[in-house]
Amino acid sequence: MTQNPTKVVVPDVGGPPAAPGPAGPGWLGRYRNIGVPIVALIVLVVYFGVQNAAFLSPDSAQNILRQLAFLAVLALAGTFVILIGGIDLSVAAGATLSGILVATWIDDLGGPLAIAAVLLCGAVVGLANGLISTLLRVPSFLVTLGMMSVLNGISNTVSNGGPVSYQSGLLNTLVNESWVPGLPNGTLIAFVLVAVFTVVAFATSYGRHIYAVGGNERAARLSGVRVRAVKLSVFTLSGVVAAIAGIIFTGQASTGVPLGADPSLLNSIAAIVVGGTALSGGVGGPHRTLLGTLVIVILSSGMDITSVDPYTQLIVKGAVVIAAVVLTIDRRRYGTIK
Amino acid sequence: MPDTSTVTLTGISKSYGIVRALRDVSLEISTGEVLGLIGENGAGKSTLIGVMSGTVRPDAGTMTVDGTDAPLGDPRRLADLGVSVVVQEQALVESLRVYENIYLGREALAGSRGLSRARRLRAAAGELLRDMHIDEFGADAVVAGLTYPQRQLVEIAKAFASAQHTARPPLILLDEPTSALSEHETELLFSLIERWRSRAAFLYVSHILHDVLRVSSRLLVLRDGRVIDTLPNDGVTDARLHELMVGRERSADYYHEEAQRGAVSGRPVVQIVGGGKAGAFTGVDLVVRPGEIVGLAGVIGSGKSELAAAVAGAERLDTGAIVLGGVRRPRWTVPRAVREGVCYVPPERAQDSLFPKLGVRPNISVGFLDVLASRWTRLLRLAAERSRVADLAGRLRIKTPSLATPVGELSGGNQQKAVFARWLARDCRVLVLDDPTRGIDVGTREEIYGLIRELAASGVGILLCTESLEEIIGLADRIVVLRDGRVSAEIPAPATAKPTEVDVVSHMM
Questions:
Q1: Under an 8 A CB cutoff, do A19 and B451 touch?
Q2: Does A6 score more than 50 pLDDT?
Q3: pLDDT at A16 over 80
Q4: ipTM of the assembly?
Q5: Cβ distance B366 to B427 under 8 Å?
Q6: In this structure, which of A44, B15, B34, B508 has its CB flanked by the most CB atoms within 10 Å?
Q7: List of chain A residues whose C-beta atoms are within 8 Å of the C-beta of residue B406
Q8: What is the pTM of this model?
Q9: Closest to B220 measured CA to CA, from B236, B231, B210
């Protein structure tokens, strides 16, 4: 065997033909996932800017950053679960419940303790999702769909179906004030979380194991990945991050609102998919989710500013999700669609 | 209806990439005959069955039924011509009843539509089962509730049912029909063949030579996809068949036999003691010493693959234990095995070892992330990852446009090199290889053989399980032969005194 450490890669000249490759030119296929959201972002900013100059004002930017805070964290909660090839439909309901619990507890327990308790609840919810789907082998979308309903029921029970108000100013400080000028703290938290999660995804064994499980679960197991532990921890993490999203939501709304975060479920999945994280697992990442969230937030705030009516907005957002899946899906996995 | 019918294959060839599964195969089979088809693993038996039943379309050649061309590659129309098949992989719909399965897709045989059709089908199936002397289950039983051998009987009944309704005497293809059957059930099948003989032609494929010799009127031997001989079943001995089935020239250079050194230490690095796994193997004792290449030989289904997987932690033992470095290891799993330096190259690259959409780099580094993690921060040292992977890719000469290219786009040989590279960066004590050269071109094979030798020379114990006898004999220091889940022989294979393939095959079958 020749030792040849300097010449890294031997170009494939005469070897046997490669396995059936992807359709289309290589570079296009490779950069399409990351290219789509960036192009979409530029097109949207230019379009809304031309339609209404107010879209480009500092106020509008502040508004976008505020919306980004909650949605980015919520989408982040779902990202790792989608990366392992599952999906967590209970993130928005988990966020709602956390928002209500923090509002209920913060005056009695004090800020830090209330927040810690809420995060713990999030972890328990996520762990329950993970245990049911891994130990009982139930598809995660069914488990979390059921969990969504359970959590909604608990939210309404705790809040008696009405808004929960609180006195503490802590959440306002944590979410709405700005330690960094021009950047609301909630958004700062979102950015920090995205940064931390991106490092976890790419520069830790745990992160690599997540991609391995999503890329080929059996191969992951046979190459020494503790698949079940990875799955359980990913669901738990999802629950905790959803709880953070809920705290941000309540901080922004200044009350705990039953069903408050729920309508954002589709937006959060849209953000993940538009960012280029494949629903089939193993491809994408937290940084992509931030990009996707930006697209979704700009789309909805642009439509607000250009006075598109809310019903039309629903149609547009649904269409965007479908379009994003169409543009980013890996058709190699589905031999019959061609 | 004519009394006899003759199926003729002429010049059938079929390649899968570089593997030539069938080369210019011709045969003829008529009503009243039972043609026994024998050959080593990979000789082309299953491909030939596939061609005759229509699931495999050959690259060249023709098939005729009573002189008229048969539609190759069209299972449905071949079935109409009277060809029916019982294969190893069962093709039953579990949620349906026995009679529904037997007549699936051929419900029209029972006449017009209507409520009474189900009754007529059930009656016909009931009669068929009686005729076959099958009384363990009724035509009404739901397939999901049947045992594996019972399902096999349903498959056989299905083949016979379609044979009853064709215009000419049928050809029934039986591919390892007894592999799951009890002795009693096997007898049932044989008496059935005996009774049907005058009304049908049979092609009988089995690893169990004893059965083939008992039931066949004529034998056809395949080797490397070629017909080696056809001979009447008249005083043929097992030994003669073994000789016909094997007998290739082995190149000592190809397997780097000059570099064969054997164990560097007498103390076993890994052992299985009294190992058993339900449905796979029982009472197996196996020892691998540092620097030794131990070959696991056996026919498909002998339990060798499961045994290799058990050593790697990928299958759990029901009885017995894994002993590593002299210490018993309960709850032996892949993560534990990897941590202890027992690394596994599984047989099916696409399903078992690759992350096709991930780049070459993460596909390689997944095997040694723990080595790359910084002691203080636990973060991966990405620069070290790049340089290590680049070194490994260079050392193994992995051909790829870049190390970020999805590994799924590489050729099979380069993919397999990437799987090997995964384990080379850590201190392996044992490497478990299951069919490491499957579907790989000759040049890359030789590189992999060289690599295996190099690893053994460095003191790694190697457990090698492959379908190719030639490969096992060429590489191994010692060959452990499995038959029906038990060790049937241990054959030393030093470079100076390699056993012949006949020596090994005689313990496999």
A1: no
A2: no
A3: no
A4: 0.79
A5: no
A6: B34
A7: 22
A8: 0.77
A9: B231
